[in-house]
Each structure stands twice: as C-alpha cells, then as structure tokens.
Design goal:
single chain; about 260 residues; alpha+beta; five-stranded mixed β-sheet; two-stranded antiparallel ribbon; binds adenosine-5'-diphosphate; histidine kinase
Length: about 260
C-alpha cells in the first residue's frame, strides 16, 4: 500500500485526528514489473545478435577476410544474425502497433481457407526443406468478418511454429469448421508438443519452453504474443491442446460477424 497521512487540527489548534489515504498499489507494481521485465528482455534479445555481428565483423577486419573459407563462414553468420535482428524489430513494431489504443482492424468478409492457402505458399519452401506435409480441411464455409493482413499474420505465426516444432517428415493440418455463428480454425501438428504446465505461459512475450531450441528454430519469442493480441482484437477464443511427443493443436473460434458491426 501507498499510505499518505495528514493531521486534522481543531480550531483551538489541538490535534483532532489524522487522515490516512491508502492506495492499493499491488496491481500498479505488477504492471511496472511486467514493463521492466519487457525492457530487460528486449535489451537482451537485441544485444545478443549485435554482439555477434560486431565480433565477427571485427575478426574479419583483423585478417580473417583473407581466408576464403573463414570469410564466407563469418559473413554467413553476420547475415543470419542481421536477419534475426530484423525479424525481432519487425515483431516489436507490430506488437507496439497492436497495443496502441488507436489500433483498428480493417474489416471485410473473407475466407479463412484463402488465408491458409496464402500462408501455405509462404511457408512451402521451409516445409519442403524439412519434408513436411501440409494439409487443409474445410467443413462448411470459412467466411468471417476480419482483417485480412492481421489474420494472415495469425495463421502464419501458428503454421510456422507448427513446422518449427515438428520433426522432419511430420504433418501440419489447418482444419476449418463452420458453426452456427462462428468458424473454428485449428492448427494441428505431429510435433514435440508442450508440457501442459507451460501452455498458459507460451503466450507471454519472449517466453519459450526451451530457450536454446526455440532460438535455433529462428523465432523471435513474440509470435504467440502477437497471435493472442490479434485473436482477441477479433473477439476470438484461443485454446491449446497438446501432448508431449505427440503434437499440438491451437484452436481459434472466430465469430462470423464482429460485434461492433452487428
Ligand atoms: P518462438 O519464436 O520461440 O517460436 P512463440 O511466441 O511463437 O515464440 O512461441 C513461444 C513458445 O511456445 C516457443 O518457444 C515454443 O517453446 C512453444 N511453441 C509454440 N508453438 C509450438 C508448437 N506448435 N509445438 C510445440 N511448442 C510450441
């Protein structure tokens, strides 16, 4: 508690009592802590690739540049780390845009199946490299009112994760099912799964179940935080079901019409 006290004096000048004002600051403190943790995490995530880029550039300048094998190897690392830095900055900007009070969806009627097909085009290269199989299932119409670009981001993040966290040769399925007033989109994989204890935390910014493995998967740690924000902006419900070693299913239930436009 924040406590302020002030004496209350009688006309005679004698002390009559004390007024105490107490504010419950636990909630405020928690938010402040979340903000501090976020800044610390961002700094750490930015520092790691920058340190590596700087180190390898220095080594090149110190002479490694004359060795064709080393110079190729180091330049590749510099490229990879810059790429990582760029993804991180793009995701951070995206998150800050979404969290802005002025953030608005650009709504239109569109099909989640079309979005999934677009996303599969984007990830096809990565999927083929790993020998992964991509499938779409549709029951009824998958047309909802939503923001095309944002929903594409949602499906892309979920499908990219499904590919990243599934061993070579596995399957990723996007299943779409019409309900009375909603459409359910499921992204299923046959991957490593998530410990049930972790399923709530994975939506936190920079939270990863296995830091080392996730970093190697090329993600920024912000993907699911972005998914959660954008799904909530569309009044969608998110559920996760997972079994370790078997696979994971993210399920998003979208209303067909956004409440604001009913
Ligand atoms: P990242 O960039 O690390 O993938 P995300 O926010 O997209 O960050 O995901 C957070 C964490 O949730 C991941 O690091 C991973 O541990 C876990 N995760 C997400 N999707 C899956 C999945 N389909 N299968 C297993 N684990 C997953």
């Amino acid at each position: 508690y924040d406590v302020y006290g002030a004496p209350v004096m009688a006309d005679s000048g004698r002390l009559r009592g004390v007024t105490l004002v107490m504010h419950d600051i636990t909630e405020q403190k928690k938010l402040e802590q979340v903000r501090k943790d976020f800044v610390a995490n961002v700094s750490h995530e930015l520092k790691t690739p920058v340190t590596s880029i700087k180190g390898f550039a220095e080594t090149l300048l110190d002479g490694a540049i004359d060795d064709p094998v080393l110079s190729k190897q180091f330049t590749e690392i510099i490229w990879k780390e810059s790429d990582r830095l760029q993804m991180l900055i793009v995701d951070l900007l995206e998150l800050s845009k979404i969290e802005n009070a002025q953030f608005k969806l650009d709504l239109e009627d569109m099909s989640l199946k079309d979005i999934t097909e677009d996303v599969f085009e984007l990830v096809r290269g990565k999927a083929e490299e790993k020998g992964m199989h991509l499938h779409i299932q549709e029951q009824g119409s998958s047309v909802i009112e939503g923001d095309w670009q944002r929903l594409k981001q949602v499906v892309l993040n979920l499908v990219s994760n499904a590919i990243s966290y599934t061993p070579s040769g596995g399957h990723v399925t996007v299943a779409l099912k019409e309900q009375k007033d909603a459409v359910v989109l499921k992204v299923q994989d046959t991957g490593i799964g998530i410990d049930p204890k972790e399923t709530l935390r994975i939506f936190e910014r920079f939270y990863r179940v296995d830091r080392a493995r996730s970093r190697n998967s090329g993600g920024t740690g912000l993907g699911l935080a972005i998914v959660k924000h954008l799904a909530e902006a569309h009044h969608a419900k998110i559920e996760v079901q997972s079994e370790e070693g078997k696979g994971t299913e993210f399920s998003l239930t979208f209303p067909k019409k956004q409440p604001s436009t009913l």
